[in-house]
Design a protein that fits this description.
Elements lengths: L1 H14 L8 H13 L3 H14 L4 H13 L3 H13 L5 H6 L10 H11 L12 H5 L6 H16 L4
Helix pairs in contact: 2-3, 2-4, 3-4, 4-5
Length: 161
Amino acid sequence: MTRISVLAACLLLAACSGDTFTNAKTLRTQATESLAQKNYGIAADKAYAATLKAPKEAESYFLLAQAQAQLGRKNAAMAALETAIVNGFTDEEAIKGSSNLEPLRKAEAYRELMAATFAPAAAAPADGAAPAAAEGGGETGQADGQAQSQASAPAEGTSRH
């Protein structure tokens, strides 16, 4: 019986992924190295594994975004980049300077994310009021202001505060 138990334990260990006992920092290092070597599939796997180990670690999502962009998975790359920013990745120069994110730069979603995150207008009023809509829109009248306010209402209802 003991031989069977030992054999089962060995088979179980052999079946386990190599990332099972690896920490998130090591996985991020491996992802970074794989990106540098243009091994984007491996980089994506390592970065994704790092996000599973440390779901709030922003750098892992930034690495994942780069790998996904190079693999042509633009939607996944945008989602990872947005998650990186939401989790606290604020290095605008790293984002703008990453050649791996070049496939995203022409996308409207990328431009909107960058503008919303890093533009001076991103420091909107803390009370969550819509800037132009709440003020009535100037000479165009109160009806335009109400229409703008109603148009932005669904977006405000889905935000996380």
